[in-house]
Amino acid sequence: MLGVGDFYYELGVQIIEVCLALKHRNGGLITLEELHQQVLKGRGKFAQDVSQDDLIRAIKKLKALGTGFGIIPVGGTYLIQSVPAELNMDHTVVLQLAEKNGYVTVSEIKTSLKWETERARQVLEHLLKEGLAWLDLQAPGEAHYWLPALFTDLYSQEITAEEAREALP
Amino acid sequence: MAMSFEWPWQYRFPPFFTRLQPNVDTRQKQLAAWCSLVLSFCRLHKQSSMTVMEAQESPLFNNVKLQRKLPVESIQIVLEELRKKGNLEWLDKSKSSFLIMWRRPEEWGKLIYQWVSRSGQNNSVFTLYELTNGEDTEDEEFHGLDEATLLRALQVLQQEHKAEIITVSDGRGVKFF
Q1: Which residue among A39, A69, A83, B129 has its CA within the 20 to 30 Å range from the CA of B93?
Q2: Shortest CB distance from A137 goes to which of B18, B25, B67?
Q3: What is the ipTM of this complex?
Q4: CA distances from B89 to A148, B55, B81 (A)
Q5: What is the SS3 string spanning B41-94?
Q6: Which burial class, exposed, middle or buried, applies to A147 when counting CB atoms under 10 A from its CB (0-12, 13-18, 19+)?
Q7: Helix, strand, coil abundance in chain A, percent, nearest 5
Q8: Which residues contact B4 (CB under 8 A, 6 or more apart)?
Q9: What is the side-by-side strand order in the sheet with A77-81?
Q10: Where does the record place a coiled coil (chain B) (predicted)?
């Protein structure tokens, strides 16, 4: 049960604000690390400390409300999904593969997951369609599909004033 | 006026340099980010005009470290978008060189006219040089503005009957109303 004044309720609101502000960058997918960093920044130095576990607990509560939040385990951490993009098991497993380099290719998927080309292509098309991935046609060899959510250069970048406005009701 | 310039995160993101993204929403974000980057880059480097060939090889569109460069067809689309927004003007019919204005002429016109009014200099005459290089305007944003952009700003004011571009002894000047 969520109650007003509840620690996790307030944390949930903060989480939603960060996700809204960054949605246009990452399509609604964010690593737990980045979310943690941004939430801590927003809390200021006198606020109660917040751990990644706290974030997970708050997000589970948000999930229970049917808000479209999702938690996807990848390479030892989690990707937090904040928009109700249709992500099935195939998409999730490709996300996990992408976590290593921040991008993924058809060949990589075929080699690691032993899938047919068509199945790999469909997943990548879907990620593009959902705005979670961008296409890179100048990579050596074949097209690379990059996920802004996994692009570590993006971490700890300040939320701009414009992005913050997105988070206001 | 010091201005800090940092390459936006997109500049280090390889797909940013691929021709415009297939996803419509993503493409819009990509195009908007490019337009914004072109304007800040030109503002920083005080570059008011460029040729398309220069642009292709400039660090703006060619990120050597990343080994990515925006293809010329996409550069054309970005430039066209800037033209539509009023920040760019083609200098020749074959669209090989362009004037780039990080502030639109209307915006510059407004700033200049505000200064004129504030300093009580309506009905005064200035040479173009005085406006952009005179001591009096040292603290103004339009100080150091290139002549081509200045003229366009004054033309806007002229249309609004706030100024008149005139000929003075060795060039052009403007009278404000």
Answers
A1: B129
A2: B18
A3: 0.83
A4: 33, 15, 11
A5: HHHHCCCCEEEHHHHHHCCCCEECCCCEECCHHHHHHHHHHHHHHCCEEECCCC
A6: buried
A7: 55, 10, 35
A8: none
A9: A29-31, A77-81, A70-74
A10: none
User: Domains of chain B (ranges plus CATH)?
Assistant: 9-100 (1.10.10.570), 105-176 (1.10.10.10)
Residues 13-42 of B with CB under 8 A from A: 13-19, 21-23, 25-26, 29-30
C-alpha neighbours within 13 Å on the C-beta side of residue B95: 9
Largest Cα–Cα separation, chain A: 54
Residue A43 CA from chain centroid, whole number: 20
* Fold annotation for A89-149: Arc Repressor Mutant, subunit A (1.10.10)
Q: How far is B22 from chain A (nearest CA, A)?
A: 8
CATH class as words, domain A4-82: mainly alpha
Q: In this predicted model, what pLDDT tens digit does every residue of A38-73 receive, in sequence order?
A: 999 888 777 778 999 999 999 998 988 887 899 999
